[in-house]
Each structure stands twice: as structure tokens, then as C-alpha cells.
Amino acid sequence: MRTKRVVTALAAAALAAAMGTPGVVVAHPGQHGPLDGHLLGPGAWGDLTFLGKADLTNTDDLIADVAIDPRATYAYLANWGKATCDTNRENGDPDAGAYVVDITDMTNPKQVGFIPHSQDSRPGEGMQAVHIDTKFYDGTMLVMNNEHCGKNGRGGVSLYDVSDPRKPVKLSEHFGDRANLSLGDANDIHSAFAWDTGSKAYVVLTDNFEQGGPDVDILDITNPKRPRLIREIDVDAEFPGLTQTNLGLVQVFLHDMVVKRINGHWVMLLSYWDGGYVQLNVDDPTHPTLIGDTDYTNPDPEFLARTGIQRVPEGNGHQNEFTADNQFFIGTDEDFAPYGATNFAIASGPNAGPYPSVPVPGSTPIVVLNDDKLNGPVVYGGYGCPDSAAIPTPASVPGYLASLQPGEEKIVVLQRGPTGDPNAPEPACFPGDKAHQAVLAGWDGVVFVQRHGGTENPPFCGSGAFVDAVVGVCTNHEAYHKMFGTPVSFTYPDGPAIGTVGARIEATAAFDGWGYVHLFSNQADANKKFAELDTFAIPEAMDPAYAVGFGDLTVHEVATDPNNPNRAYLSYYAGGMRSLTIVGTALTETGGYLAPNGNDFWGVEAFTRNGKTYVAGSDRDDGLYLFATGP
Hints:
CATH superfamily of the largest domain: YVTN repeat-like/Quinoprotein amine dehydrogenase
Radius of gyration: 23 Å
CATH architecture of the largest domain: 7 Propeller
Strand content: 35-45%
Helix content: under 10%
Largest sheet: 8 strands, mixed
CATH topology of the largest domain: Methylamine Dehydrogenase, Chain H
Strand order of the largest sheet: 24-23-30-26-27-28-29-25
Distance between the termini: 46 Å
């Protein structure tokens, strides 16, 4: 099923190496399975110099974000936990929390502690170490998010006093919007960012449970032992005109944010996924006002420049930072689906015809299949979470295996859920959790179904937590009912019995590249729009030869240089660490790092010691990497 594409990728990698492409040699299968290897690299090049590393784990995909103490002597790395929500202890790892690493000697950083999280609560993207000085607290505070991963999960933000990093003290935990107490202590938050205005301190949270609603939560943490929710904002509803729904950019929700004082004002820069990048004035955090936002250029400028092919932009505004002089800001679009333009059709029965669809980020592209399509009869498998009713095996469905024709796959249909509907009977889990249960049951592919009440077009079925090489396609709720010939319904309960055989389906895909980087002017025009000045992607990210077998080649995060307004650093997952220089209004790669055995960089932080810039990166499979910058 997979040989054709991987061999093509290997040949292309060898050609790239012969042409002198930095950091690319061959695929590196084995660390994550045959479809999710790594690019191999030469180590450091250009204006990045590798200093040292701290090996923190032997578990793949365990490490998440990294934060650096304001004194530049300690680092904190999130132990995110395995995608299956199991504990990590079989490899000697602790359960989820934060590693504390002494980086006084950057050539030999060492772990000196660990801050555990509550059971089934995972920190990930929202890791920050910041100095806070109010009448209630004066010290270094570690800010961490919490996401559910298991039945005992709790959400909200956790705050720790790490003034003495070797003896952290809990200030408060699991504070946030408590509108959904039936689902936990507080709503899940994916990221958090704190700032100190002098007399007061605040933290802004990404509310996972209210995406598409008031998903920006602001807490007053002036007294960090008693945080108070002071404002919730549904940004696109409060400030109409931010979205480009005419381009199909309908997944509009907060993912990440920073707050910075610029020209005497507190400015919040939001990464609003398909809504682009949005700036709010938060001088009064209880009454934010709009400064401006970005639009995605149509057609997609990076893909057009690299391939000559026109594609509609995909959105995916993930994370961003201002440059040191505030003249620009840089945004990173995260896209795990290099084959994003998907055609989906019911191929048999009275409801035959095309239906809206997209790939599920993190799943394996359709093109790994020998005939470049996912096709065959479908079976309803329910919701597919570990605590849901069991997914049937193909052999247990009467007559199913005998009905398969040559070249067809065994395909199960799984619903997304829950939605907060009190009638929803199912627990929550990531698409990758559902896919894992499907693979264990013996299925080749998964058709995910947009949840009840989901009306986005194209549809959205979530992303993340994939641990298996399995093809995943997302279609809308109407198509789900049409596949099984049941009345279209958007309320519980609905649908056929688990194990029901439905129509045949057929899905194909077209290459549209991995996620990449945008440079924006920080001067809004009369229409409150920030101009896009340039884009950047590593070459492999726009080459279909690298779509399978080389790991995730999307950008993840950016950290701008605190001392040089023309410099920035990227964590590029399997693409390694990259250094960019702004020349005029153009982004140019001037250095990088890619280990001989490959990397999987999640987080990046740039920090200052003795007037010089250094860079920290968190490798998901490994731990902390430290770099010097400059010639």
C-alpha cells in the first residue's frame, strides 16, 4: 500500500541532497513507523550553533512547549502525555506535567525537577515563565494550560511560583470559564499568556469548549491565588467582517495569543485560525477594541510561487509574535494535511453524488493507497472513543468482507462528539483516539462525521492525537445519514445501529502543501487591515515527494529575536529549527539545525543572556536543545 510513494520520496530526497539542499538527506523510517519518518540533517548550519541538549524522555511525541525563565537560567518543558491518554511510566517517564531544567551551563543542561499535573490533565501549548509584580505577588510565575486526556481530566490555567525553580509552589490551578462543569472543573484551554500592567496582572486563555463562541477568556490574576474571569469574547461576532467565508475559511476560533505594550498601549495579537491574525487594544481588558486583522491572500501565494498552481488559501493561523521593533509581526499557519483538497462521493445507492469533505489533520494522506483513492462499502462504528461502545471488527459484520471488491478498503464511519448537548451520550476524545480504536479493530480507513449542529462548509472533524498510519476523511452530518439511508437529523439520538453496512464511498485528494510562515506589516490601513508582505516555507513543504515518509513538515511556532528586529526562529517539526532574517520586507532563511537522526521540534523560545540572543527548542521525542545565534 505504501511502497510507491515512499520510494518516490527517497529518490527526490537524494536529488535534493545532490543539489545541495541544506539539511535533507534521506527519509528516516522507524522512529514513528514507516509513514512518519524524519528528514535527516547535517546538524547546524548558517547563523545557528548547537550548544547542548537535555534528554528528558525515551517516549516519542511526549514533549510539548518550552518556556525560559526571565533570568535565562532555567527552562520548563511540558510533558504532554501520550495521544492515547495512557500514562508514560513504562519508559520511566512521569505522567503529564512540566520538566524543570537548569541551563546555567548551556553546553550541559540538566533536569533538576518535575512539576506534576492533575490526573488526566495535560499541559501543551500554553507554557510561559514571566515575572509578575503586584501588591499580592512578586516573583517568577510559570503559566500552564490544561486539556482533558481521560475521564478525570480538568481544564483551566495552572499558576506556579518558580522564583526558586527547584522548589516550585502552586499558586492556583484549574481556573477558567466554568460554564461546562459537567465536563470538568473548568473548560479545557489550549494556550495561555500572562502579562503585568504594573498594578494589575492578567492572563488570556484559549477556551476549547467554546470555539465558535466566546473563546477568548481573560482572567485577572493580580492575586494569583484567586484568579477571576473578567471577560469572555467571541471576536468574530463582536467585530464583524474579520472572516473570509466566501473562500471556505469557516473554522474561526482562537488558537494562540501574545500581549505586548506598543506605543503606550497593550496590544493582544490573536491567532484566530481561519479568521487570520487579529489585534485588539486591551488597555482595559474588560472592554477590548479592534485595532485590525489580516486577510488570507487568494490564491495561496506560497503554493503558487513554488508550484505555479492556484489553490484557495487554507487558513490555519496558529501562532505569532511581534518583531523587537514592532514594525512587523510573523504568523505561523499549522497544516498537517499536505493533501488538503479532497473529493468525496457516495458511489452507490439512491443518495449517490458528491458531498463536502476535507482530510483530518494528523491522519495519513489518501495517496498512500495504491490506487490513490479510499473506496469501498462503509460500516457504522459509533463514536469510537476508548470509553464508547466498541467498534465492530470487519469480520463480525455479516457479509461485509465478502462484499469487498478488488482494490477496496475496509472503511468505518465514526461520529465526532460530544457538543455539550446534555442528551449527548458519548465521552470526548481526539480523532486520533478514535482512529486508534478503529485500527485495533482491523479497519483500513476512517470516515469521520461532522458533529451534531456542525454546519461548517467545508466540514470540520477536529484534529490531533494520531498514533497510527490510517487514512482519515471528514464529511458533513448530512452525508453521514445519506450513506446509511437514515433521515437527516441533527439531534440525539440518531443514525443506524453500530455494525450497519452503508453505501460505497470514494475519496481522492490533491496536494496543496504543508503549513508555512507569513510576514505582516504592523501598520493597519484605513480598513483596519494589515498587509501581507512575504511568505516562507522550507522547500520540502511544497514538494509532493515529501508528503509521506518524512514526518510532519508544517511549521509550528515562531520566536522573534529580542535583540535584533530582523531575526526570527522557527520550530518546524521534522523540518528542524530554522533561522530567518527579514531583508527589506522579505523573509530569508539564514541558518538552521537538523540532527543527523532527525528532529521533531514543537516549541521555540529566543532569550537574552549577557546581551546575546540564544534559542531554546523542544523536541517532542527527546527534550531540550539550546543554540547560539549570530555569525
